[in-house]
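Field reference: "sequence" (input) and "structure" (output). Example, 1-acyl-sn-glycerol-3-phosphate acyltransferase:
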Amino acid sequence: MVKILAPGESARTKRVFSVLAGVVRTSMNALIGKTWKGFETLPQGGYILCPNHLTEIDPLVVGHAIYSNGRLPRWLAKESLFKIPVLGWLLRETGQVPVSRSASNAGESLSAAKKVLDAGGVIVIYPEGTLTRDPNLWPMVGRTGAARLALQTGAPVVPMAHWGDQELLPRYSKKMYLFPRKHVTVSVGQPVDLDDLRGGPRTRAVLQEATDRIMDGITALTAELRQEEAPAVRWDPSKHGQSKTGRNFDTPEN
């Protein structure tokens, strides 16, 4: 597979990606069987990839799929992760984008992500913001970050769904279940139609509508993989007394 590298990708970045991808791909191939669907329809230029979020291992599944299909994925990653020895170095060397919880620095994250997209790169954003709180692992309500970036940059938004990796590492579990060997299916859909929302003011209502469309695309792919009908209403943690972040999500935020 020929890698579609964004202009200006340094030789160092390519080398680090290659070494890291070699480790991840070898490990993932040993742990799971895989099926990839729809990857031939992915845009050639920059785009925002929006997957569902089932388990702490699914970034490796998503990264494996994207890299093996010719692109270098970049995530919007918590700023605190960049301070962890080794991991922080890897994040910086592979061009991942730090995200600060400080409102004053939020614009810097969007600017960094825009540079990746403008150079033809792939930005991965989990619209749910954290592992789904839905008890049956359906996509829950989304946050507006992916929609905001899409409307600001004009980049296409590609929905993605994966299913099966939660059997390898259940949500927030500290134990992997290696046997029997699991099979993961990763599917991508057509870009979400946001054309009628671009160009105008990015009001709260517009951002919410764009987010709902993105989540609709992810949910439809998930239902197809599961061969089940999705819930009529997406799970909203705030309506169930759950916190938006953290493992102990059944404890409401103050």
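Residues 204-226 form the longest helix (23 residues).
The helical segments are 11-31, 58-68, 87-93, 103-118, 145-153, 165-168, 204-226.
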